[in-house]
Automatic annotation (TrEMBL), chain A:
Origin species: Gallus gallus (Chicken)
Compositionally skewed regions (Basic and acidic residues) per UniProt: 69-92
Keyword terms: Nucleus, tRNA processing
A GO CC annotation given for this chain: nucleus
Domain of life: Eukaryota
Protein name from the UniProt record: tRNA (adenine(58)-N(1))-methyltransferase non-catalytic subunit TRM6
Subcellular location: Nucleus
Subunit and interaction comment: Heterotetramer.
Gene: TRMT6
Positions with biased composition (Acidic residues): 269-280
Signal peptide: none
Region: Disordered, residue numbers: 67-92, 268-303
The keyword tRNA processing belongs to this UniProt entry's keyword annotation: yes
TrEMBL record, chain B:
Record-given protein name: tRNA (adenine(58)-N(1))-methyltransferase catalytic subunit TRMT61A
Domain tRNA (adenine(58)-N(1))-methyltransferase catalytic subunit TRM61 C-terminal: 64-305
PANTHER family in alphabetical order: TRNA (ADENINE(58)-N(1))-METHYLTRANSFERASE (PTHR12133), TRNA (ADENINE(58)-N(1))-METHYLTRANSFERASE CATALYTIC SUBUNIT TRMT61A (PTHR12133:SF2)
Enzyme class: transferase
Subcellular location: Nucleus
Enzyme Commission number(s) from the entry: 2.1.1.220
Subunit structure as annotated in this protein's UniProt entry: Heterotetramer; composed of two copies of TRMT6 and two copies of TRMT61A.
Length: 484, 308
């Protein structure tokens, strides 16, 4: 089970990698002769293969990548600078180069670095700007004209930052520092048996898998037809990591808890066939969006170009679309067989997951979903062993208030805590340090706690109530006084 | 029990957390024949603890009771004996994620201090990773070693008693990540760089003052670190309370009240927010921020050691 993952520092064909330009990230699959569009630039990754992760590349005019060595600082050392801006007038004529000139330079395939140099030389006000303003000017122009791309290995840090910046809606606005809190409060580590219920495109699942490093087991509870793992696939986990990843449909939790879940009858159940169909539809949709993604970057829906399929066969179908149509009939027959095989596998996996849940000894529960947290918690906590942490994320505070109250009524939990984190970034430069101008307004809320042995019986619950009242009552009065 | 593995039952030699209620708890070393005093009475280890399940309710001699919890780095952080100022779980969470730690990671840390972060790092890099922690204060270094032994994690950590600014971490070219919580981190950046793997790695420095951050950032730049990024993380905790606000008496006749104001928006008295016109109050649930919160712990500066 022990898998040394992430040891190969070199970029290989078929890897999941992340492109980075400035603070912008994009997850891609490293494939030969496949055009990638990133930050309005098209290029091929072929040349990057074999280089070490963390290498910075320059995009050449023919769309190839060329490794960039240590940045040779633009030597504007003979610095001449003004002290203030009292004589700088915005007449719109300070830049001598016109739009057409700049375009001509670009079309000639001149390096971005030289364009920046030209812009500086042709700016009449540059010399009068203060040293700081000159710095800022150069930085801004560099960002625009010097296209350098770093290829990095995916990690929770990178993917959660990327998702929060690019597609916060897909991860229900779970900010990366909030995800970090969840992993820590949930004591996620190698060897655990974790229950994860998320609708964050598989990002939370991926984060948990990374922290468990292939040791222990995870049961993912999913709504609808199947678990969504688009973000999980961006991590590029090795295959063995999936050996102990189980999934269980949320819609069967109740029958599992009541003991009425019957696995033998599952494959013939009509609703199960419906699920399979739904899944196929899902795949087609994904294929379409991934095709769009190569054509137009602007579409907000298409951050990830990695195919969201797990099966090799489906990937091949994606690649050979024309052939796919010709062989449709044959495919259809195969599909039926494939479906049956899949269904059988699903039942087997379901049986395993159900058995794991029935033991009711999970080491933790992480919930980050678009659903109301209260019913999820009240049911899923049944599967968790005593003295284990649980963490619920919600984009809004109010549902967690109710969840808090209901958990208190239920009992079997201690150390309940409702919290939120604020994240503030700083610009640190000599004589110019200050908090960044903008900060994130909301990264969601977290309710965490620890399970304890749940006593059944009235006397105990009233006793629990007594304990609850004993401690915070004085505090509660104070708070109420404050509010009234 | 161990800090890196859950156990079901309490055993002799375990460190357990006695939970009294509402964030009032303390650690206890379980020993045959040992006794622990609480405000609810005595707990006798041999009969009350050993062999019981973690998470059980234990009745004390005066009839009151407590819960016994399995130790975790997070519970240890709020219960450990302070030898220094410590890092709390909010900062620790971000440090762990931003340093990209996972099972198998090799981490260097200085100073060890009270071992709050150390326990969290060990938890995350276990079972195949390792923590090299450097503490220049001899007594603290020894105390930390003793704790790691008691907590069953000594095989995952090496404590070195030396000055990291002068002598470095005692390892070179093997670390995936370095963490610095020392008064002059800029003096240790060079050592941090040589401790990190040749193909790169991540570094974090924790400093309370912005002047320290500035010098650290300059040093990082000088040593060729990239992606230098400083941030601050603040925890806001909310108390869940039911609040009642009085409805002002504007002199309206009693009959009019039913058709005006709050009542119209919430005619059926279901759930919260509820109105009670007899008493003239409106009740609702609220997440009330604590009267005082931690406004600043320290700035976290992260950077990447790049290839060149």
């Amino acid at each position: 089970m022990a898998v040394e993952w992430g040891l190969s520092p070199r970029i290989c064909e078929g890897d999941c990698a992340v492109l980075k330009r400035g603070d912008v990230f994009k997850a891609v699959a490293v494939l030969r002769q496949r055009k990638i569009i990133f930050e309005k630039q098209g290029f091929y990754l072929d040349n990057a293969i074999g280089h070490v992760y963390g290498t910075t590349f320059e995009v050449t005019s023919d769309g190839n990548l060329q490794p960039k060595r240590q940045v040779e600082e633009t030597t504007t050392e003979t610095k001449e600078a003004g002290t203030d801006n009292r004589n700088i007038v915005d007449d719109g004529k300070s830049q001598k180069l016109t739009h057409d000139d700049i375009k001509a330079l670009k079309d000639k395939g001149i390096k971005g670095q030289e364009i920046v140099q030209q812009l500086i030389e042709n700016s009449t006000t540059f010399r009068d700007k203060t040293e700081f303003a000159q710095d800022k000017y150069i930085k801004k122009k560099k960002k625009k004209y010097e296209a350098v791309i770093t290829i990095v290995k995916p990690s929770t840090r990178i993917l959660s930052t990327m998702y929060y910046a690019r597609e916060p809606g897909k991860i229900i606005h779970l900010r990366y520092d909030t995800l970090a809190q969840m992993l820590t409060l949930g004591n996620v580590r190698a060897g655990n048996k974790m229950i994860v219920m998320e609708t964050c495109a598989g990002l939370v699942l991926g984060a948990v898998m990374e922290r468990m490093g292939g040791y222990g087991s995870i049961i993912q509870m999913y709504p609808g037809g199947g678990p969504i793992r688009a973000a999980t696939s961006c991590f590029g986990f090795p295959k063995p990591f999936f050996n102990n990843l189980h999934e269980f449909p949320l819609s069967k939790v109740d029958s599992l808890l009541c003991g009425t879940l019957s696995l033998e009858t599952l494959p013939s159940e009509p609703e199960d066939t419906a699920l399979t169909e739904e899944e196929t539809n899902g795949l087609v949709d994904e294929k379409q969006t991934s095709v769009q993604g190569t054509e137009e970057e602007s579409s907000a829906e298409t951050a990830m170009e990695i195919n969201q399929t797990e099966e090799q066969e489906t990937m091949d179908i994606n690649a050979e679309d024309a052939e796919f149509k010709e062989n449709k009939e044959r495919e259809n027959k195969e599909n039926v067989r494939e479906k049956q095989r899949k269904q059988w596998e699903r039942t087997k996996k379901l049986t395993e997951a159900a058995a794991l849940l029935r033991e009711k000894n999970a080491d933790g529960l992480l919930v980050a979903s678009k659903f109301h947290p209260t019913p999820l918690l009240l049911s899923l906590l049944e599967f968790v062993a005593p003295s284990r942490p649980f963490v619920v994320y919600c984009q809004y505070k109010e549902p967690l208030l109710e969840c808090y109250t209901k958990l208190r009524e239920r009992g079997g939990v201690v150390n309940l805590k409702l919290s939120e984190t604020w994240l503030r970034s700083y610009q640190v430069l000599p004589d110019r340090s200050h908090p960044k101008l903008t900060m994130s307004g909301g990264g969601g809320y977290i309710l965490s706690g620890i399970t304890v042995v749940l006593d059944k019986g009235k006397s105990d619950s009233s006793n629990l109530e007594a304990l609850k009242m004993e401690e915070p009552s004085s505090k509660r009065c104070k708070v109420q006084d404050l509010c009234c | 029990m161990s800090f890196v593995e859950y156990g079901d039952t309490i055993k002799d030699g375990d460190t357990a957390i006695v939970f009294l209620g509402h964030e009032s708890m303390f650690p206890v070393k379980v020993q045959h024949g040992g006794v622990t005093q609480t405000k609810y009475g005595v707990i006798r280890h041999s009969t009350d603890l050993i062999g019981k399940k973690y998470g059980s309710k234990v009745t004390c001699s005066k009839g009151g009771w407590v819960f016994i919890l399995h130790p975790t780095p997070e519970l240890w952080t709020v219960n450990l004996p302070h030898r220094t100022q410590i890092l709390y779980s909010t900062d620790i969470s971000v440090i762990t994620m931003m340093l990209e730690l996972k099972p198998g990671s090799i981490v260097c840390e200085s100073g060890t201090g009270s071992g709050s972060l150390s326990h969290a790092l060990i938890r995350t890099v276990a079972p195949t990773g390792h923590l090299y922690t450097v503490e220049f204060h001899q007594q603290r270094a020894e105390k930390a070693k003793e704790e790691f032994r008691e907590h069953g994690v000594e095989h995952l950590v090496t404590v070195t008693n030396q000055d990291v600014c002068k002598n470095g971490f005692g390892v070179s070219g093997i670390a995936d990540a370095v963490f610095l919580d020392i008064p002059s981190p800029w003096e240790a950046i060079g050592h941090a760089k040589s401790a990190l793997k040749a193909e790169g790695g991540r570094i974090c420095s924790f400093s309370p003052c912005i002047e320290q951050v500035q010098r650290t950032c300059l040093a990082m730049e000088e040593y060729g670190f990239t992606e230098i990024n400083t941030l601050e993380i603040l925890l806001r905790v909310y108390n869940v309370r039911t609040i009642s606000l009085q409805i002002p008496d504007l002199g309206k006749a009693a009959e009019d009240n039913s058709s005006a104001g709050f009542d119209s928006s919430n005619p059926s008295n279901q759930g919260s927010p509820g109105t009670n016109l007899q008493q003239g109050t409106v009740q609702f649930k609220s997440g009330v921020p604590l009267k005082e919160m931690v406004g600043h712990t320290g700035y976290l500066t992260f950077a990447t050691k790049s290839l060149f």
